[in-house]
Design brief:
The protein is mainly alpha-helical. The protein has 4 helices and no strands.
Length: 67
């Protein structure tokens, strides 16, 4: 994981930082918090694009690159 983080572009690292607050402890899910999506419900790429203030294609690409 550490190697992967070092290889992220600045844009990808920024995207990851913006969505990190939605990570569910102990899982690999990003979940809503009632402000952004329903609480406890997995977030969609569309939700992540709104959170990160970027386009849907950018959010999708960044999610794929980080995964």
């Amino acid at each position: 994981m550490k190697r992967r983080l070092r290889k992220l572009s600045l844009a990808e690292a920024g995207f990851l930082l913006k969505i990190a607050a939605y990570a569910s402890e102990g899982t690999n899910l990003l979940q809503g918090d009632n402000e952004r999506g329903q609480k406890g419900t997995p977030l969609t790429v569309k939700d992540l694009a709104r959170i990160a203030d970027c386009s849907y294609p950018t959010a999708r690409k960044d999610c794929e690159d980080i995964h």
